[in-house]
Amino acid sequence: MKLSSKKKESKKRAVRALVLFSGGLDSILTAKILEKQGIEVTALTFTSFFFDSGQAEKSARENGLKLRVEDISRKHLGIIRKPKFGYGVGMNPCIDCHLLMLKAAKMIMQKEKYDLLATGEVLGQRPMSQNAEALKLIEREAGLIGKILRPLSAGVLPETEMEKSGLVDHEKLLGISGRSRKEQMRLASELGVKDYPTPAGGCILTDKEYSKKLRDLLQKIEKPKSSDLALLRIGRHFWLEKARIILGRNHEENLQLKKIAERGDLLAEPKDVPGPTALIRGKRKEEALDLAKELLLRYTKKTGEDLSLKITAGS
């Protein structure tokens, strides 16, 4: 009996996978393992106020992967304010963050009819978010029990629906666990993956100094702008109630402050001697300006008590 053209088309259609993609070695290998099975892969990465898509774009380009970028900035900020599952060492809500990404991926998968969702997670690699209990919790909270494929650790995890149905060949998946990367590096060589980043130093939200600045900001400003969050990466920070003063620590940071300054901000800098630039933002600017002058005097390499300032408005 001849198949109808519709059935033929359905039979020929490749399995389509959406892969959460950071651009690191684990996510590259995950994409390559699935591609080796003839699965059509779309790499999915996210941007927020606290991370960008730079590494993912670079890795996707170098490895011939189709990449999709989604902005989750505001939703991500919301869970940082009040994470259901708490923080790590800083302001990093690892489990909540991963859940947010999986829920966003689930919506895309369902709307655009992808066949499976995969991640580069390795059992035991990250103590907070990749232990066995955390993986189960994440699946349950995301409404994806048995529906997240983890090709690098599939051999030491319960089989997913995709493996049981034969959508993916379980025998061709890996059983990696723990923090060692030896097996991944061996696999990279086998799959011809030559360029990949070294393990990153971690999410910026794990940095204690950055976390302190972020905590202060969120306590004082209910709805911070993107530029408020960008300023967290620059300079020394001081508060006068809801007025904020940021001092550049070097010439480059002084230039960055001038670039970020917006209408309503004030910029103050020593008039006749080299020194830091101060950006003043928020209420009670006159009082904040007095404090900024004291701070500039403290951090400017100039003897004496007199310091003339050049004051300009942000634009």
Q: On the 0-100 scale, what is the average pLDDT?
A: 92
Q: Quick one: overall form? A: elongated
The named CATH superfamily of the largest domain: HUPs
Strand order of the largest sheet: 3-2-1-4-5
Overall structural domain count: 2
Radius of gyration: 25 Å
- Tell how many strands the DSSP assignment holds: 10
Named at the architecture level, the CATH assignment of the largest domain is 3-Layer(aba) Sandwich
Helix content: 25-40%
CATH fold topology of the largest domain? Rossmann fold
Low-confidence stretches: 1-10
**SSE pattern:** HEHEHEHHEHEHHHHEEHEEHE
Q: Main beta sheet, described?
A: 5 strands, parallel
Provide an overview of this structure.
The structure is a single chain. The protein has 315 residues and is α/β, with parallel strands linked by helices. The chain folds into two domains: 12-191, Rossmann fold (3-Layer(aba) Sandwich); 234-313, no CATH class. Helices cover 40% and strands 15% of the residues. It has twelve helices and ten strands. It has a five-stranded parallel beta sheet, sandwiched between helices. The protein has a five-stranded antiparallel beta sheet with strand order 6-7-9-8-10, sandwiched between helices. 36% of the residues are buried.
